[in-house]
């Protein structure tokens, strides 16, 4: 509510009613006065005053306007799905920028706007859902990672500790889940954003030039590169002519494994391996993945199918 009155002796208090489940009900607000002889309708408006109904609030400001020597009108109002007013903006009748082109002396009821700033905004305090302050800090807009949590995640990532283990460690240090300010998904998103890609130090461009040169030497050489939102390499697949030819003969059964040693970019090497008629292992394609999630594996398998 806009602060129009100059009397700031009023105090607004709100009672919070908590049920057995920790949910906060809509507060029952009321105004207390320093002077008990005053009526609530005789005080000046202040910020955060509460009323039992929209009609009571409108009556309060109308009485204030009469005492102060001006009249009010409704500037804006909004209704809810039940056709009940839940937002109301009352202003002085001289509010606005419009100036009549007719001379006030010849008008029967001469009125002219003066851009008066007096006004009050009234809105319902009811929420359409239960409130729970114990978990409100985990709402997406309120979650955050502290510098200490980020440092712990970075150190554990370098040590190849799984993200869920890192999150449990941070949660234990914080004293339990109720004291956490972020979720495990936030930790995974943080690590995903900070994983180094092949584009660092020009290695991405060097890889692309190498694949292009191999393609120029043999048109049957095949490669695909997946880029992220920042046009950085996040996944790679390639297969030479020999691997593609072998897949036609021995591609009925494949072995796919991502447990090989990773490179300096923490991208696991993912080979497609088959068995020839001599019982020897043969390479049927290779991949590098930025992360071992479902989307990365789907992209890699589809790339292999397009190649073969």
From TrEMBL:
Pfam families: FAR1 (PF03101), MULE (PF10551). It comes from the Eukaryota. Residues 59-129 form the FAR1 domain. Residues 253-308 form the MULE transposase domain. PANTHER family: OS01G0519700 PROTEIN (PTHR47718), OS09G0290500 PROTEIN (PTHR47718:SF13). This is Protein FAR1-RELATED SEQUENCE 5-like. The lineage of its organism: Eukaryota, Viridiplantae, Streptophyta, Embryophyta, Tracheophyta.
């Amino acid at each position: 509510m806009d602060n129009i009155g100059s009397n700031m002796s009023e105090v607004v208090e709100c009672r919070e009613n908590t049920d057995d489940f920790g949910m906060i009900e809509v507060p029952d607000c009321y105004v207390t006065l320093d002077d008990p002889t005053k009526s609530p309708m005789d005080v000046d408006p202040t910020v955060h005053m509460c009323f039992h109904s929209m009609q009571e609030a409108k009556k309060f400001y109308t009485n204030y306007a009469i005492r102060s020597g001006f009249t009010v009108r409704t500037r804006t109002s909004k209704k809810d799905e039940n056709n009940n007013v839940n937002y109301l903006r009352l202003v002085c009748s001289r509010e606005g920028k419009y100036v009549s082109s007719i001379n006030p002396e010849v008008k029967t009821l001469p009125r002219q706007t003066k851009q008066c700033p007096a006004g009050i905004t009234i809105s319902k305090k009811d929420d359409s859902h239960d409130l729970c302050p114990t978990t409100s800090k985990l709402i997406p807009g309120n979650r955050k990672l502290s510098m200490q949590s980020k440092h712990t995640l970075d150190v554990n990532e370098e040590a190849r500790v799984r993200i869920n283990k890192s999150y449990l460690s941070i949660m234990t240090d914080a004293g339990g889940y109720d004291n956490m300010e972020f979720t495990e998904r936030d930790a995974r998103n943080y690590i995903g954003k900070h994983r180094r890609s092949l584009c660092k130090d020009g290695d991405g461009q060097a890889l692309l030039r190498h694949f292009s040169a191999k393609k120029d030497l043999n048109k049957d050489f095949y490669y695909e590169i997946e880029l992220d939102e920042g046009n950085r390499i996040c996944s790679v697949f390639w297969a030479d002519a020999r691997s593609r030819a072998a897949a036609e003969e021995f591609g009925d059964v494949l072995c796919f494994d991502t447990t090989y040693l990773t490179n300096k970019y923490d991208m696991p090497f993912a080979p497609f391996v088959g068995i020839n008629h001599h019982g020897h292992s043969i390479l049927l394609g290779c991949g590098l993945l930025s992360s071992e999630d479902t989307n990365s594996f789907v992209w890699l398998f589809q790339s292999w199918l397009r190649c073969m």
